[in-house]
């Protein structure tokens, strides 16, 4: 198959600074590149260094905090170089690797690079590592910054590190890396006129809708970028905007095309967003904050900014997540506005007063490391087992809270990843090799011992695919009928139901029509299948039994799924709840007691008296109208006893301070206390 014709790199501001960049890279192990919107840093830096010979002794790795950006930017670079994805240019995201031995420029998520460092701590396969979009301050990027600080001391002669961003505090990062150079690359930003609302609208979707229609009717040609908080808001906005445009008087304005843009969008729909608009047609792109900096949509002249973002927050004192709509930062607001000035002077409509922008918005987004569970990150750092990581040499740009670190240690102890004194166990090392949440990793390892690995792989794949399986969640009778025909989990809960659904699809030979007939999202199911295949390959080296679904066909089923539920009990030993005596409410068991309820969507059933199981494990706690356990499974009291014994022996001081272990945690706690 012939390679695509190269489109050639566009003329972007960064091209004028090529010699300056190469000279700085040549003279320094680390440089910071602050590239304004439209400078070309994400697509051109890797090509510049490739052209200048930096791929002769290793590949160039370019990290992105988002999957969609890693894929789209790599495709753009491949197009400019005239190569197919997977050849000279490729990408690697969780559960998908489009690279080969030929690959010289590799775009990958920050999490994938962390996983690669487990098997190769020195990352010898790379001559250059570019941490792109570092201003987003994702958890994995912050860990990588600390890892790079260590790496350059060991590989100063043959490794170059570039930290790039549109808005990052360059001086702060420079100081973190002992005063490394900071290069500022201007972007192609035309003037953007900003319009503020007189007050905050009560309904930002309706206000955004009215603003978009006003632009369409009154303004000159040019695409419109509308920022929403998440997929649900985007779906509502797309539907309402299409309806409102159809109701406009024919001939009163140009044609319109409404397109969504978010992280879980299928690749074929992403292509439409980055393709030029048809003649005499205005595009409306309704996007999450993925369009702030990670992805650039050409042709945008107008921006509608609702001033909000949906942010996942973790409370270590309760172990509970909440998905909150919060105000954006001033940095985010400026990035959004800048999207209107990429190709010509533009306009940004801010649906909030200027006083809110000046006085209420934070300067920058709170780093993810300060608002998420750290269990997986602590496990990763412990598994590195590097002797030179000591109290003086490992640090973060912004340290996490002491409470979050202690919460992570307790979680890992309860699922056997670390022992009483904080040392990583053999089980913990196996867990770290799996690209999963620690609870799911522990479940797979226990399932392997109990002989139900195939079942557990299916459950882990569906949960970690992070895609809603339900098609429409429609409330009509037809949708309800389709869902009622799905397996019910045999009363044991949601994990069992997910397994039964997937196995039923397997029995139907993965026919997409089976998904549609049961109101299931075809893409979500297919992705879960791909994830399962990837996990099966990863776990083969420790598997004690078959991992393929076909091995289960025709086998007599365990009607109570006892082995699977027991494996889940061990894996979710840090997420256990006990039923209240007089009703079906629960309280969480452990070092943080919380009154919770089973989520209304759960298929968990009670006994003949209506009583739910005494003990359950859950995949996550979420706080919506009240605290709910989501994805719940009933477990037996005898399985819970070892967990209760571990709780009795839990001593946080031993986990934190034992002299011969947990250097990383001592380091972080020391930083916090300074």
From TrEMBL:
Query: Which molecular function term from Gene Ontology is one that the record holds?
Result: ATP binding
EC number in record? 3.6.4.13
Q: Which domain of life is it from?
A: Eukaryota
Q: Which reaction does it catalyse?
A: ATP + H2O = ADP + phosphate + H(+)
- Pfam families assigned: DEAD, HA2_C, Helicase_C, OB_NTP_bind, WHD_HA2
Please give the SUPFAM superfamilies that the UniProt record associates with this protein.
Answer: P-loop containing nucleoside triphosphate hydrolases
Domain (Helicase C-terminal): residue spans on this chain: 208-385
Which keywords, in A-to-Z order, does the entry hold?
ATP-binding, Helicase, Hydrolase, Nucleotide-binding
Q: What is this protein called?
A: RNA helicase
Tell me what organism the protein belongs to.
Triticum turgidum subsp. durum
Species classification: Eukaryota, Viridiplantae, Streptophyta, Embryophyta, Tracheophyta
């Amino acid at each position: 198959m012939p390679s695509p014709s190269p489109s050639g790199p566009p003329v972007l501001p960064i091209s004028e600074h090529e010699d300056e960049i190469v000279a700085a890279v040549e003279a320094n192990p680390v440089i910071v590149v602050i590239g304004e919107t439209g400078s070309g840093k994400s697509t051109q830096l890797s090509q510049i260094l490739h052209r200048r010979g930096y791929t002769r002794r290793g590949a160039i790795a370019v990290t992105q905090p988002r999957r969609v950006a890693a894929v789209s930017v790599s495709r753009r670079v491949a197009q400019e170089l005239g190569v197919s994805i997977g050849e000279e240019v490729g990408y690697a995201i969780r559960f998908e690797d489009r690279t080969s031995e030929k690959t010289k420029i590799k775009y990958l998520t920050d999490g994938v690079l962390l996983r690669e460092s487990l098997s190769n701590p020195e990352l010898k396969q790379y001559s250059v590592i570019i941490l792109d979009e570092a201003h987003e301050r994702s958890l994995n990027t912050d860990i990588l910054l600390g890892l790079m600080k260590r790496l350059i001391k060991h590989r100063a002669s043959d490794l170059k590190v570039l930290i790039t961003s549109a808005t990052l505090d360059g001086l702060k990062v420079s100081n973190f890396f002992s005063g490394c150079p900071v290069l500022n690359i201007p972007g192609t930003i035309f003037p953007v006129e900003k319009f503020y609302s007189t007050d905050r609208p009560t309904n930002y979707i309706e206000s955004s809708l009215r603003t978009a229609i006003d632009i369409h009717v009154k303004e000159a040609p040019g695409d419109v970028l509308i920022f929403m908080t998440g997929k649900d808001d985007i779906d509502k906005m797309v539907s309402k905007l299409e309806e409102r445009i159809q109701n406009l008087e024919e001939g009163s304005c140009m044609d319109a095309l409404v397109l969504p843009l978010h992280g879980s969008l299928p690749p074929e729909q992403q292509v439409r967003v980055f393709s030029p608009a048809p003649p005499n047609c205005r595009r409306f792109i309704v996007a999450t904050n993925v369009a702030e900096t990670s992805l650039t949509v050409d042709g945008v002249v107008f921006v509608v900014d609702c001033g909000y973002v949906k942010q996942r927050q973790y409370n270590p004192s309760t172990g509970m997540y909440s998905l909150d709509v919060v105000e954006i930062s001033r940095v985010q607001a400026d990035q959004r506005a800048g999207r209107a000035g990429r190709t010509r002077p533009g306009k940004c409509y801010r649906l909030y007063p200027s006083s809110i922008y000046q006085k209420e918005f934070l300067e920058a987004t709170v780093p993810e490391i300060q608002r998420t569970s750290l269990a997986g990150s602590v496990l990763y750092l412990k598994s590195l087992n590097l002797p030179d990581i000591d109290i003086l040499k490992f640090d973060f740009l912004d340290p996490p809270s002491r409470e979050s670190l202690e919460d992570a240690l307790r979680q890992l102890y309860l699922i056997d990843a670390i022992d009483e004194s904080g040392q990583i166990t053999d089980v913990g090392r196996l867990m770290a090799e799996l690209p999963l949440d620690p609870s799911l990793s522990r479940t797979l390892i226990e399932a392997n011992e109990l002989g139900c690995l195939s079942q557990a792989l299916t459950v882990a794949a569906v949960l970690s695919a992070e895609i809603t399986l339900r098609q429409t969640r429609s409330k009509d009778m037809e949708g309800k009928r389709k869902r009622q025909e799905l397996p019910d989990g045999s009363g044991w809960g949601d994990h069992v139901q997910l397994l039964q659904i997937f196995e039923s699809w397997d029995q139907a030979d993965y026919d997409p029509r089976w998904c549609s007939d049961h109101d299931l999202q075809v893409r979500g199911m297919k992705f879960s299948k791909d994830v399962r295949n990837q996990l099966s390959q990863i776990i083969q080296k420790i598997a004690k039994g078959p991992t393929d679904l076909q091995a289960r066909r025709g086998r007599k089923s365990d009607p109570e799924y006892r082995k699977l539920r027991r494996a889940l009990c061990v894996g979710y030993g840090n997420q256990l709840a006990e039923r209240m005596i007089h009703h079906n409410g629960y309280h969480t068991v452990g070092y943080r007691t919380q009154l919770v309820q089973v989520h209304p969507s759960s298929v968990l059933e009670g006994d003949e008296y209506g009583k739910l199981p005494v003990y359950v494990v859950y995949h996550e706690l979420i706080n919506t109208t009240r605290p709910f356990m989501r994805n719940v499974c009933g477990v037996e009291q005898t399985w819970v006893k070892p967990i209760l014994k571990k709780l009795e022996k839990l001593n946080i001081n031993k986990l934190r301070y034992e002299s011969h272990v947990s250097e990383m945690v001592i380091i972080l706690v020391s930083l916090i206390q300074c």
